[in-house]
Amino acid sequence: MTAAELTPTKDRWLRAIAYGLLAEVATIITIIVIVMLYRFVIARGLSDAEYMAFGGRVGTIVGPIGGAIYVFIFARLLMRKIETRWVAHGILVATGAIALSVAGSIAGHQGVPSGYIAASALKLIAGAAAGFLASRRAVEIT
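^ that's the sequence the OP posted. Answer follows.
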């Protein structure tokens, strides 16, 4: 084979995983910011138990929804850098986010709550949707 026959693919598998990790970190940061704003700006003077309860509610709501939104956003950012296999790359972004989410849950909760199944499904759907939209764009261009 000649060098011309060995053209590199534009797959970004490791970058997809990294984007997934970033999506999960962005979700965690969003939850922390909301809880801190509530504690120090909106509802000052409550007990620690009330703040913990609020944090739990925020995590239950923002975690799955925010996680899916961030997976979609980061997967769309990745789509600009790849030329093929968009849906697979989008699913890999979701997989990176799910891996960090589950690892954090095991470390923090010593288990994985059942709500993580739905959150993981939403992330997979978001990643696949980002890839699907990118593939549609590529078809329209050609």
